[in-house]
Amino acid sequence: MQRRLPMVMALVALSAPALAAQTPDRARLVFSVGLGQTTGGGQLWRVGKQPFNGDTLAISRAFRSSFNIGFGATYFPGNNLGFNAEAFLVGLGTRDGCTVVAAAQPLDYDTREACNSLNSKERGTASGALSVGVVYRVFSRAAIYPYVRANVGMVVSQESFLRAVATIPDSNNLGPPADAFIYLDDSPANLQPYLSFGGGVVTAISRGFQFRFEVRDNWVRVPVVTGPTSGSPAFSPPTATQGRHVLSFQFGFDIILERKRGRRY
Description:
The protein is mainly beta. The protein has helices at about 5-20, 110-120; strands at about 25-40, 45-50, 55-65, 65-75, 80-90, 95-100, 120-125, 125-135, 145-155, 165-170, 180-185, 190-205, 210-225, 240-260. A hairpin with a 5-residue loop joins strand 4 and strand 5.
């Protein structure tokens, strides 16, 4: 055993330079599919004194937690900096709130039922964003490595962020519920700028696939209600377009379409 030890040490010393020269492969062209969720919770708009049927309501709308899905491709010409194009379905679902702030006594049936209806109403608004951007990764040959990203593009929405419609059941249960239109929106479709900033970690699960976890801040501009209506037949409230931040997280899989081979000598 003592005679063999110097021989083993000599073999290790001779092979060390060759092992040090070898490096793992690095992903170069990657196609990504991700599924995630927005955290919701951010207020979209609030009207504190909205006349309704002789009473006064406080009506609000906030973002709620919604699913999102993304498809993208990233090309890394070098070790760290990459260029990205993405189609991202941003979950911008909303939830309404309503309270009666002033009312005759006893409270009018239609007012009570309209407010109750708004309090339970949710919308699954999904908006599609097309964007391009840059990705910067570090330690890209490691088993797990971090990255940051920034994208800019446009987002299109088909559902209204303004329209508010309450449902009032028939007081005698003899007919179908009636719709009470509080805010109307004649042009719900809109196209707005979109920005996103995020980061995450990537780990290889096989030679051709990677797993990714990402957190991002999505900045979108959406129309909001800025004041009450007077109850005129038009029911068109004063509006403005304002920027909102929507935080989301996403789990994804990357398919490596092209890789840069590491050194083998």
